[in-house]
Amino acid sequence: MQKESTELTICKQIISDFELLRNSKNILGMARFGINTEKAFGVSMPVIRSFGKKFKQNHILALELWKTGYHELRILASIIDDPKIVTEKQMEDWVKDFNSWDICDQCCMNLFKKTSFASKKAIEWTFRKEEFVKRAGFALMAALAIGDKKMDDENFLPFLDRIIGESTDERNFVKKAVNWALRQIGKRSKFMNSLSIQCAEKIAIIDSKPARWIATDALRELNNLAVLARIKK
Questions:
Q1: Dihedral through CA 50, CA 56, CA 58, CA 62, nearest 10?
Q2: Which of 58, 198, 226, 228 is the most exposed place for a label (fewest CB within 10 A)?
Q3: How many whole angstroms separate alpha carbon 116 and alpha carbon 150?
Q4: Contact predicate 179/210, CB 8 Å
């Protein structure tokens, strides 16, 4: 109880600190990039990350920050939470709260990819109808492709099936995440590059505008000589 009381006090102080940092110009800029600014302070990511360094691995504080509903504080929560303590239920609770693409991506990149449920949720969420939940599935695939260097390539094969399966989703935030996942998986290794190109070619022949865009954009990057030169094996 004492610990929770202390973290609640810290949370209230962080809210006060962010209120002082409120930047209306930045809020307008965020809105232009399609970010939900309903409860935003307009605080930049470098500043948010500087706060994150002060409170790293603080699960209780992360939960308190998330409950506030403030845009930047939820991103901060994803930075300071301890992935070893995060439960599957917490991931489900948080993903239902996603109301902006950047919160979705930040949670996947900062926290969810480090949990033991990451691959499972990446698949599960792509079957969901909610726009940001489905995006989270593909954002998590991209996060794992970028950040988990020890993960065997074979573990990414089911992801490619889901990428094909959802390539016709016309919603902007979904199709961009599908494309992102495909491109990042294809840059893991020469083996995955070849399979990802084959995946993109299958998507390209689907009679769907979003599918054609996903395939064209992915093939442009995955066949790029500079990109291929950076793939080590």
A1: 40
A2: 226
A3: 14
A4: no
